[in-house]
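Journal club prep — side note

Before the paper discussion, L.F. wants everyone to see what a predicted structure for a comparable chain looks like in token form. Sequence:
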Amino acid sequence: MNRLAIVLHAHLPYIRHDEPNRLEERWLFEAITETYIPLIWQLEQLPKEKTFTLSLSPPLLEMLADPLLQNRYLNYLKVAQALIRKERRYGFIETDLLKFYEERYKQLEETFLSCNQNVVSLFAQYQDTVSFITTSATHAILPYMKTMEGIKAQIEAGLDCFTKHIGFRPNGFWTPECALDERVDEALASAGIQYTFVDEHALPSRKPAMSPHGVMLIPRNRHLSGAVWSSVDGYPGHEMYREFYRDVAYERTDHYIAPFIHPEGIRIDTGIKCWRVTGKNEEKQTYDRVEAMKQVKRDAIDFLEKVEQTTTNDAFEAVPFDAELFGHWWFEGPEWVGMIVEEGLRRGMLTLPESFLDTDMPQLNDLPFTTWGRDGYGDVWLNEKNRYMYKPLHSMEMELVSLAKYKHPFSVVEKEMMQHWMLAASSDWAFILDGQTATTYAQKRFDDHVQAFYEVKKKKEKKEQLPFLTNGQLEIDCGHHQQKKKARPVLLIIALEYPPVIFGGIAKHVQQMAYVLNDDDYEVHILTTTTHKPELVMDRSVYVHRIQPLQPKATSFAHWVSSFNLACVEVVEQLCLTQEVSTIIAHDWTTAIAAAALKERLAVPMFGMIHGTLQERGKYADIKTGHTYEEGVLVREADHLFVCSKSVESELQNQYDHLEEKTTVLYSGATDVKVVKKASSHSFFIYASGRLVQEKGFDVLIKALSFLPENTKCVIAGTGPELGYLTSLAERLNVDVTFLGFIQDTERNKWFEVTDVVVVPSIYEPFGLTALEAMSAGLPVVASAVGGLNEMIIDQKTGYFYPASDERELAKRLNTIYGAREEASIVGQHAKLVVLNQFNWKQAGSIIKRKMSSWNKKQVNVEMFKM
């Protein structure tokens, strides 16, 4: 199934003036009338389920919330209604169309007054329906800024403005004009941004990827986007839609239309347009709203079919648009969006960018400068028509950075200067000059802000005071104001695996805990392995040191692991020259030697996380347990041990002395896996996943299939040394089993959509992440009654148990579910509620932090590394 992410970016330049009757303020009024309120009408009709992404820019938010502009917009509506009444008296508009406009403007006024004239508050009510994000403070082209401080100031001011109006800090960000480079990537990561959008040519694979600093980059599908906005063959050009360029203002006499246009007699659009596109000739047919809505439905279905037909299977396609295209340029656009959402939900096609944050994807080593503008680069905003703007912009920026280096926080004067620099840096002025549209206004706005910057600095005269970002968001952070925010101590986490390097369930556990622990108290650094070259990358502002073992080609796994531990110590040696390491957390025996050595040399507390004991695992898996020495080092040297289940805690206490007061159970957290169930093409569909090793018991599942109905189908995801044996076993028993190999979470979720039951047939299972993921998706789980599974599942209430290694008992359980799938589905939904409440990453993080806080943090002894 192809997944479609719809993204609308709502933005207008800041055109607020004290002076009334400015032509430019009608840009805002027309957008409210034709785009923003009609979009809200569509939201009112949609289910409370997040279905698409809407970016609201700070200039737009500030204008929509401005009382002066609100009152002027209300007058704009009154004037339009008066014109409609006059049209009725003179009979110029056909009855049905006139009735449509009368009802529409009445509804516009009612909606506007219902929110006390603040459209922002209406948008904020739909956080259950829309995934909201924002952009930089004034929609500046961030790569064209002179300093990193300037880039960060634009980003932080934008995030603060959005938080003020909508009530939360978003984790997604629209980089203006999709302009991105290495510096912007770094700034977004440091601000905690998790994803942004780029043009498809920015990514060689044209698929989502992680940036060098750990921000998910989502490419725009140009082909699908072009089907909508193309001026040649896009949907808005269909003859049934309303003609944008014909307005009654240009079809009535001067005397007749005078009260409804600009006071100086300038003819401007009134918003009352009576014609449909009807080809390219001047003779236009009357607009028919009913027929236009029929065409909207046809075009929505056509678009979804294009998604299904022209993209690869299981693709994640993003189609970002300027929101104002829908309604203002394409009058019927908001209804098209509503139809796309309604029909897309029915087909199970819609998704959100954040749904893919926890999936494995390639990570880029470098990031070239790109935009979604002409030819994919910055020519629109930097050419012979507008290049003169950047010298004064850079001068103002450097002056603010210089001020910030010795004066903090900014005074009222510095904030006014910063306000004018930001507004002058808006990409809108350069864009207008490139397009040669309202060039006089754009030039004057830019020049006025530059002049005001220096006049405010000298305080020679009082300039127009703009109510833009006035709540203290305007600052420049030069990164050296230690009195403002003390550097965070480093929490060092050592783990052999970390996404995208995944051997088992440890990788996901380490990543999620890193996200939770990386806050104001700790700066988290991960030491992990790499399959490529060594590098330092960012993953949601977590520092990930991908380290190559000193013996990368060692034939012995033991030697390879040992050389990784030695390499970790070398990396920390360099890290400690600039950072204060306060605590170490080591995961399993593979990191024990490095953790113990660093604990001694740094004189800091060290915590161990045990995900399963080697001795107990060896009983079931017939594996060599020669690494119990390293496990013993971790157990003995750790100041405290976290264990993944009570079962593992019991194993440790049986194998090692004096651990009663040294262990704490720390369950992995559950993420809310949203799955839209679909009817399977098979009568009974079973899903299982894990490493294909003996201890996971997949042979038990395959044997059980021979006792189930013939229309049973099973898929097993995962890789491992048992693949050949399991394949031959399935062939010998003549059961329908498909081995998927390693799959990402997005593909797993597709299989979940058609799954009747998930089986976890482990012989030994320290925790059971597979079961937890299935339960968090609301699926019924049948599991062997071993290890951590016993602590996760309540038999016949949140899942089903059977005796481990007993294929006949497993078959009995599955046959029972086969005949009572509705009851099993209820069990699955109950399981989802339980696990999301009881298995919580934040709760797990709090447990770790409480334990760490009980040990005194000691200063790093950097001198020890210089011996």
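L.F.'s comment for the group: The radius of gyration is 31 Å. Keep this in mind when we get to the figures.
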